[in-house]
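Section 5.1 Outputs to date
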Amino acid sequence: MTRAAVLPAVGAPLRLAEIDLPDPGPGQVRVRLAAAGVCHSDLSLSNGTLRQPVPAVLGHEGSGTVGAVGEGVTGVAPGDRVILNWAPSCGKCHYCGLGEPWLCAAAGAAATVPYAKLADGGDELYPGLGTAAFAEETVVPAHAVLPLPDGVPLADAALLGCAVLTGYGAVHHSAAVRAGESVAVFGVGGVGLAVLQAARIAGAGTVVAVDVSPEKEELARACGATEFLLSGEDTAKRIRSLTGGHGADVAIECVGRAETIRTAWSATRRGGRTTVVGIGGKDQQVSFSALELFYFGRTLSGCVYGNSDPARDLPVLAEHVRAGRLDLSAMVTGRIGLEGIPGAFDAMVGGRGGRALVMF
């Protein structure tokens, strides 16, 4: 039996339960979790903003140790330290063929297939985003685990599986920040903190962090912000004043709200780049006039999983960690048990803290 936090239905509270987790079948791996980050995407799955079959065990940002492997698995072995990959690419679809594995058409397939059962009733459970990391152990497809390079603490490494790959990729792949450029980061949660560190690694000049909570300032500056602003009606104007009157070269939005996306766009210079990382609801509509699109010549782009290829990027991130350029522990503002996940959800809704890490 395995202890897990179960989402009984969309919008329902999580409940702790024992689940019956099968042995890994062909092409599968069983992982003993060391830690799992509580990501805003988990909240979005729980409240229906993102689709997820239920009942389910959420959690997709995880690290752990391989406990067992099924027939045909050769990439990892029992005892190996691994990171969960919630969006594994198939290598065969149209998008993978274009060299864009972050858009893989089959990446979400595992989330639609039951993987375990409730011990007390036998109801089938679905794995949140295919990984089900809010549990002491999980079973995933072999291509959903990545070997963790040496020199990276196992528990903190969970953050590499989502927040850091997303934030680092937004800076280095999607926005392609160049040394000396100014960057405005909207939202200083887990992903926003990774964006700030990635901007620092890229050699950005002025780095402006924007958030609704004044308590985030110290955290933001520790991760690379040179300026901190409380979000308000004149945010774009204040960012322009901090960037020579022109606006930021790059804005990265990590909130997923129409108002914030619009502000991020307005805060960039003519010819600037705005990358949207935050996941908003379908009711969040952003408007632009045809004239301003022409006049400002700005670029607005979405960003899925940081436009990252985890197999390529993970060794790079590990080297940044080993060299001290990327501080994973600086992003963690709470280490909790499974019972603390609802509180971590409430903190995200209230705009408090960085990343909460479930420790096993």
